[in-house]
Known about the structure:
Chain A is mainly α.
Amino acid sequence: MPRKTHYYRFYFEVARASFRRQLVYRWTNLTGLIVNIFFGAIFSYVMIALFQARHDTAGYDLRDTLRYIWLVQALIMVVVPFGWTDLMLTIRSGDVVSDLSKPCDFYWYWFSREVGSALYYFLFRTVPIYLGGMLLFGIGLPGGWVSWLGSGFFLLIGAALGIAFRFLYNIIAFWIIEARAMVTMGQVIATFFTGSYIPIAFMPFWLRSITLWLPFNGMMNVPTEIFTGKLFGGALAFEFLRQALWLVALTLLARGIAAIAARRVVVQGG
Amino acid sequence: MAAKTTTMIETHDLSKAFRIAKRRPGLFGGMRSIVDPEMRTVSAVRDLNILVERGEMIGLIGPNGAGKSTTIKMLTGVLVPSSGKVTVAGFDPHRQRRALASHIGVVFGQKTQLWWDLPLIDSLLLLRHLYHVPAERHAENLAHMRAMLDLDEFIHTPVRQLSLGQRMRGDLAAALLHDPELLYLDEPTIGLDVVAKARIREFLLEINRTRGVTVLLTTHDMDDVEALCPRMMIVDHGRKLFDGPVTGIRERFGGERTLIAQIDPADLATLPRGGENQPIIEGLPAGVRQVPAESPQVALAFTRDALPAHELVAWLGARIRLRDVTFEEPDIEDMIRHIYEDGLLLKEEEEAVSVG
């Protein structure tokens, strides 16, 4: 290919277009923001009630717990956005056929789109939601720039894992006509195992042991625990290895299934 | 890679059959179908031979389910043929789909490749990177498209706010920015008003003439074909019924046209009434028959060889006062019925063999 030089430019531009597309939905974002803050407040009051009876749960004091809760609320839309059916809808309408025939990689095209919107959600959800938590519950900012940097790095992995996961539960629409059920199930599973309901550290030992080995752990729990100073040092290398392997595995799986789906379309029609 | 020949599209006995699982009736039947599905084969396209030269404009017409879309999908490479050979712009569409993609442009009348929430210009700029078009070339093409399609009045408007005609102009620009040699259009004028249709047709003639773009369009609308294409193919049930010049096509296969006349209310009262209280015109010329219409209209169906349209208007006008007169052209379905009924299909096939 003589034009190899601007091969990646397209994906960059797709991410940019996707970012700008999100900017259009100001009111949707504002209402979503309010919902996230509302849930952050509910979970916070539950935890405050819990910590009246005890002062330490699994090594977390009240302030650690509130920080965890607020950061998780702040990251949900970056990592496991609710109601993401964009890919599924193109499969249903048949528009996917024209996407498959574009001279670009189908998976990286969707990946770039989601990177663009993840960046948007980071700026317009994560930051204001955490600020909301600081204002309402005085949770402050933990750690220093080293833990922020580490957390940011692991958030990149987490976001990429989230994209691969939502791609997988959407692409099932090629085989199942009513794929909404799968979307709901995918979301419930992700919400639970990412620690959105209760911090993973609070889970019973047996459940936590399983959860820590799942890719969902890398989506939000790992970046959050690094941010709150619960995860540091040598443990990071191990988490990196574990989650990087998941990322490679899920990405390969997503691309593999996309290839099978493409072949099916090519033989069976849209 | 692709040798420059004068042929753009060539297919040889192109066929596509789909295998569809048939569900057995009842609960147990349904369960059995999961384990042991009963497969039914449906042929969408049968032994299709197409030869399109570079620079041609050709219309592919046929009723719903005739196999037009399936054919286009095989020509773009998104569907693999069950059997037969196909070459487009020197490529094997299915195996070289990505390479072929930068040589062709595709527009589906009912779909869009534009970003719905963003201004039109954003989608047009993004396409440069998809097809790796050099910046100057892209700028030149974009300027050209903006002028020819009058995009400037809405280029900064989000696509979701565009009218159907404007969106179609945007989609046409999007399909042509990477200088494709071949343009596929699927129902490009569907749902458009007369002015928008005329504008799109004019543009297509222009790019065909000035840029030498080969155009293959599928449509329901015979007017599209008559305005644009010197040559047309009619397909039905996956088979080619006709392949030849458009001139005189309606005269040959067109069946009956219909004259619809608005009768002056005063004269309407004087007409005798038939079944369902329909006014009756008596003593019609040979080859003309009256068909049911809504009062105060009268509809007369007539064949081309019966008498010229203006003579029929004059004939009718001499008997009753007319407020308005319109003509309805026979539609594709009528033409196909006519082709079957008169066995015209066989004659064309003999011709094709002797030419080929």
